[in-house]
Every structure is written in C-alpha cells, then in structure tokens.
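Appendix B. Raw example, untouched.
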Amino acid sequence: MTTEILINSRSYEVRLALVENGVLSEYHLQRPTEKGLMGNIYKGKVVRVLPGMQAAFVDIGLERTGFLYVDDIYIEESLPDVDTIEASPPVHSCDPEKEINEKVSRRNHNFQIEDLLKEGQNILVQVSKDPIGTKGARLTCHITLPCRNLVYIPLTDHIGVSRKIEDEEIRNRLKEKIESIRPKGAGFIVRTVAENARLEELEADMEFLLHLWEEIQDLEKGVPVPALVYEDLDITLRSVRDLFTADVDRLTIDEEKSFRKIEKFVKTFAPELQSKLSLYRGDLPLFEAHGIEVEINRAIEKKVWLRSGGYIIIESTEALSVIDVNTGRFVGKNNLNETIFKTNMEAAVEIAYQLRLRNIGGIIIIDFIDMEDENHREELFATFKAAVKKDKSRINILKLSEFGLVQMTRKRNSESLYQLMCEPCHYCVGEGMLKSRRTICYEIFRNIHRNAQAAGGNTVTLRVHPRIADMLSKEEELTMAQLEHDTGKRMVIAPAKDMHIEKYEIIWQR
C-alpha cells in the first residue's frame, strides 16, 4: 500500500491530505483565524465550581470558559500503575495519550470537586478537546507533551508503551532503554514510531521534553491569569510528528518556507526520513493534480453514492449522527436478499471510510437495510468492525440489532469536517426546514382577526416577503376579500425584498 501526505500551504489556510493507495483517507485544515487549541497549556482561574455536575468552569482567556471535570484534576495519590497506552494519534490530536488521563480519572471517583478546587484558584490546564458548537474547550490537569518518539507525562511516574507495538520482547527492551535514561519520577510513553529507535534518539527526545517542561514551569510563574503558557505545534509540524512515519512513502508540500521548516524539523527528529520530503513545483495546484479537491467536495455532501448504484445519507446533529443505507439504483441480479446484502456490505466499508474522512464523532446510528438471514447479519457486522480498524480514534460498536441498526461511538476531539467547512443557513439557522408560505399567510390572517377590533384606522398594510405577497394576492385573493369584509378594513400588500420569508409586519393605519 502506498501512503502519501500532501500539504497545501498558504498564509490564510493550511490543508493536509493523507492519501492511501490514491484515495483520500484523512483531511485536516488549519486557518489562522480559526486555529485549534488542542494541546495548548494555559494558566487559568477557576470561576465556578459545580458540585451537582462534579465539574468546574475555568477562565483561560477565551470567549467561553473551559470545562474541567473532576476526573481530569490531578491528584497525586490517585495515580495508577499503567503499563500500556495507545500512542499513535491523528494529526489533529496533540495529546496522543489522552487514554492515560481516562485511566487516571477512574481512580478519582472518591474525591468531590468542591474538596479539590475553589473559586478564584489558579490552575495549570491543557486543552484535551477543542470547543465544539456551543461548548467550551474540555480541559485536563494531566499534562502530556508529545515528541517524535516519546510522550512526556510530567505528573506521573511510570513507563508505558504503545499498544500497537505487540511484540513482548520489543516492549520490554524499550522499557529497559527508557528506565536506563529517565530521571527519577519522570513518566514517559514510547510511541509506535519508536519501535526500532536507537537509544540516542530516545535520549534526544527525552532531553528536549524535559527542557520544554522546565520552560513551561518557569513561564507559568511569571505570566498573569489567564494566559497561554505553551502553544502546540502548527498543523505542518504536527503532520511530521504524528503521521510522517517509515510507512509513509512521501511527504509533499507546495510552499518553500513551510518546506524548509519541515526539513529542519525532520533533520532534528527523524533524519532517516529526509529523502522522503518533496517540494511541489508543478503548474497545476497540488490538490488538483492529485484529484483531492473533488474528494473534499464529496466529503461535505449528505448523499454519498456507492459503486453499485446504492447510496448512503449522512445527517448530523450536535451530539448524534445518523447514517441511512439505501439500494438506490442498484436492482441486483438474482433476488432481493442478495441485492440488500451486497448493498449493505459495500455501505459498511464506505461508512467506515466516511467516518474517518469527515471526522464524525459522538453517538452514531447506522441504519442498514434490514436482512432476514442471520449469517448475512454476522458477516456484515464483521466486515464493518474490520473496516473501522484503520481509524485511529477510539471506537465502540454494539452488535447489529434485529432492525439492522448499528449503534456506535467515535471519540470526538475536534470539529468535524462539515463543521469546519460549512456554516448554518442564514435563513433556517440550521433547522433545514422553513414554514410553508400558506402557513405564514394563515398566521397573518389570524393575527388580523385577533387585533382588528382593538386597532384603530381603516387600512391594514401587510409588509411581507415577495413570495408571501404573491400568494396573498393570487391564491389567497378570496380569503383576503373575505377578511376585508369581516374586519371592515382595507388590506394593502407591500412586498419587501429585505424581509425574511417567515417574518411579516402588520401596520394599522387611519
């Protein structure tokens, strides 16, 4: 399998595409005006403690306060003996070992938030989840600092190894290497990319991370509250740190300044990968030359066509996404059951791909076409589970139900591609539906009937959207005449192009 990282870098936007066998698998973007916060470390102030929610709101200098749950507060006595942690994050994740925080948090259930934090207290926190929708950033006190081969966890005293390194002999050898060079009480996790790393490489990473933590501690003492203490790497360098491994065949970028920055980073932390760097100088834009632009546009459409002629529909709310599978134009060859089974099997692979590409998180319900054959159900479920294994985000899947539904969760650390690239319709404000013209007309009639006696004057001017005006003067002409007769008022229709179609103004005049 060929794997390539493509980076389209401009002053206003940086876009990154992970391409596997010529197909876009992951897409990330970063805009200076909408830069993500994950991995950033802040000195914040507790502004509110909520015992009923066992959480606190922390002012870190952003528009919205951050949310700190009791399980994410550092308590020295609660540290567990953790042996293995997954350490291979997606590029937008600058805290690849968030699972360590979750394991630590399970030991915090004996503590109450009001015993740990007080309003007005200063606290050092790290963003573990970007603000999404109306929610503020999710915060944690369990600081982690990732580098190329290691992740430093300054508040723990243990050595962990990525779960993706399965060979027990290699795991033990890596633990011994870290134990031989780490300072007493310093916690580290060995990342997947370090499976064959030399002791000198691990030592260089460790020295860099220890020095970085010292700088963060010194900065914390001197800055006011709230303040940014440490800002994580930008998307170009994160792509090198988190995605650019020996399995990647090439990293291509189309902007020389960014290329030199990556080249310097790789020379320091992964010199063996220097030959895989490439500066693109083609006439066509980089993404157009590789067909990425078309794939990006497909990734924000609700309907996704399958090769067979079937299709899936993807609908998302703030916390829930629903995916519906349909046969569409696919009529099959032999019988209905076979047609449904083939559509579902193709959809299972496509859905796993779309979840990763679109970065859809939270609760996900997949409505496969109902199948009567139990063997078909089991094969479909096995196919879907195998398809999502490529996804680096943590996924939990429940068994296929009798109705053909799959319930699952996918860990969400940042906004989905749809949220990053789109905004709610200024007309319907994201509802997706508007009141019908006739419904609005009848609202106007009821309003006039209700207020006709109390209102003075003998003329009523209706200031409405042109489409409503058209219906009032044509399809509802008889109703308007009857309304004039019942109320004794003359009706004047005044189309207003600047009016929202659901809004209207009734002006009573003498």
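End of appendix B.
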